[in-house]
């Protein structure tokens, strides 16, 4: 930038903090001016922060002599006009702050007013601004500030009293590291596309960057190629918003084929946005605008990009990089194409590294002090002490290791859990008897699989669950019914009517048997109440209750004693896609089309927690075995782990290329397996927040995942009509979870997923929608027969 025409000027590039992910402003960027609000209190009139990070100076350039005002002279006029307006408005304090920040002394102000560049502004030689001229300039300044990227704060810095370099800093970041809250609303979101770039040059800008990236060294090309997709989306939306429809269409047709295949669904939605009116109220549009697209790039690649954009003075791309992208810079070797491909694909890029730094208590809670000790892997242990009447001391050896507290476990009382009832204690004993006969699975000993096929499924089977003791199976159907079957010879009985109950001897020993009505006992009970397809079902651990969620926006709690609806929980405004009971009962979680998951307690009609953060539908939910955390999978192609205690998101996992439809925690609580429409199963280390494995083999959406009771085998069920068994022990051994991997995301996934595949089992024509391991490690699978 040149200063006053008579003297050579120094070009100053202001370099914002690279760790904040903000690329620097090129020297010839259009200035963003700070406008003063006359009605504001003096201290808050103008918000300006000097960039204290010291810029890199480019070689000095000779300014062209002549009377025409150069950009720097105009900047100076703008600054002088604002200062004089503040002085006239008697906002002395703000004037002082601005002058100090711009390093302009009082004498400089007078000199600027009298200089040839400033002469056109001011009337009388005494330095008093001519009212009309001052107002005209001020209105121009205000307009410039409005047009400047929405919500940004202007940063004014200079290296000497003659030169001022102005750089736009993105919302939420102010030069010296001071953070300003960024809360976009819809109108601000759209106005941020008010750019003044030449629409005919957008294709040239994009193809220029594309050529630069494709010609860069191999080690940088993979990382810089991540820029293509977010820049393409924002440049297209900018053209549409500014009503350059033919240019937008041409831009889309020329470059949409270059994007990665896993963005095709998003591009299909984008192609339907062809007019400015379409953008208002469009969810995809708001997603791209309100969430910064996260790119993880090494410092070397970032410097290369920065130099290129500064040399080319490519302001349009620069503005987008600053406004809409979050560049997470790490020190070290650039990542390879394979490492990047493993982690990208979600709606908002990768997760920021700090998103996965919080401590997670992934260990299991200490089991109760029973005379019959419990297995370490049992997910339904309680944290209350109690001694059952039936004692089996001969099984003392079983699970004695669980008496030691897991160092990674949360404190026992971190969240309040329900007390253990006598019936729960008896169930624990039964569980231990079964566990003693449990088959130890492994590559040499695969489980038997029992498949439940639903025939003539009433307009479609949409959800299945099986009780922990494998005695009942429930189906949710598209005709809005919930149907419960007994899968043992024991029929389903409900409690007698009130009139019949009054005749019973309440003191008798077998009163619990007498209250059940044998006349109405049957293998199947149908529950009516929902007014739309039932998308999720879940039995309570004690088998007394059943949850179901539906397209009608409600979650219903049913009694399995009376087979009637006890409560309808109304909180979601749109379809609820999934619900699940906590392994300890009492709490349950639901997730739906409104993009949030809700934590409920059975005795509260309002949710206890609302987990907001996903950018699309929450499609599946799962409790951690210790009940302190909840995992949610979403159509935004991310998995999030939430802390039940405070509602915080403690992990964000990216890597799937399609909506997530299944989640499963390993029995020891350390790992999470996830399945999606991309046909891949991804394995995650919860403690380190890292992807540790990828299982390829399925050719369609994976709707069911389940670990065996001891965690040796992972079973996956898919719409491709197969059940596959994977060696979980081998998948999780020798993991690379050193500090460097955690810090940079240089994950190296072994290409041996076929070595981990232990077996593939085809059904005739039945997509697999649910899997369940019995207490003895028999695998139960379920799905509805499909005739096509």
UniProtKB/TrEMBL annotation:
Against CDD domains, the record matches this protein to:
TAF5_NTD2, WD40
The protein's name is: Transcription initiation factor TFIID subunit 5
Which family is it part of? Belongs to the WD repeat TAF5 family.
Please give the chief subcellular localization of this protein. Answer: nucleus
Record's SMART domains?
Answer: WD40
Q: Which InterPro entries match?
A: LisH (IPR006594), TFIID_NTD2 (IPR007582), TFIID_NTD2_sf (IPR037264), WD40/YVTN_repeat-like_dom_sf (IPR015943), WD40_PAC1 (IPR020472), WD40_repeat_CS (IPR019775), WD40_repeat_dom_sf (IPR036322), WD40_rpt (IPR001680)
Regions of compositional bias (Basic and acidic residues) in chain numbering: 395-406
Q: What is the stated purpose of this protein?
A: The TFIID basal transcription factor complex plays a major role in the initiation of RNA polymerase II (Pol II)-dependent transcription. TFIID recognizes and binds promoters with or without a TATA box via its subunit TBP, a TATA-box-binding protein, and promotes assembly of the pre-initiation complex (PIC). The TFIID complex consists of TBP and TBP-associated factors (TAFs), including TAF1, TAF2, TAF3, TAF4, TAF5, TAF6, TAF7, TAF8, TAF9, TAF10, TAF11, TAF12 and TAF13. The TFIID complex structure can be divided into 3 modules TFIID-A, TFIID-B, and TFIID-C.
Per its record, what are the GO molecular function terms?
identical protein binding; RNA polymerase II general transcription initiation factor activity
What does the UniProt entry say about where the protein is found?
Nucleus
Q: Which GO terms describe its biological process?
A: mRNA transcription by RNA polymerase II; positive regulation of transcription initiation by RNA polymerase II; RNA polymerase II preinitiation complex assembly
Q: Where is the composition biased (Acidic residues)?
A: 372-383
The stretches annotated as WD repeats are 454-495, 527-562, 569-600, 611-652, 653-686, 695-727
Please note every region of biased composition (Pro residues). Answer: 21-30
* Residue span of region Disordered: 1-71, 372-426
Q: Provide the species name.
A: Aquila chrysaetos chrysaetos
Quaternary state and interactors: Homodimer. Component of the TFIID basal transcription factor complex, composed of TATA-box-binding protein TBP, and a number of TBP-associated factors (TAFs), including TAF1, TAF2, TAF3, TAF4, TAF5, TAF6, TAF7, TAF8, TAF9, TAF10, TAF11, TAF12 and TAF13. The TFIID complex structure can be divided into 3 modules TFIID-A, TFIID-B, and TFIID-C. TAF5 forms the TFIID-A module together with TAF3 and TBP, and in TFIID-B with TAF8. Component of the TFTC-HAT complex, at least composed of TAF5L, TAF6L, TADA3L, SUPT3H/SPT3, TAF2, TAF4, TAF5, GCN5L2/GCN5, TAF10 and TRRAP.
Q: Where is the composition biased (Low complexity)?
A: 1-20, 31-71
Q: Which residues form the TFIID subunit TAF5 NTD2 domain?
A: 197-325
Q: Which UniProt keywords apply?
A: Nucleus, Repeat, Transcription, Transcription regulation, WD repeat
A Gene Ontology cellular-component term: transcription factor TFIID complex
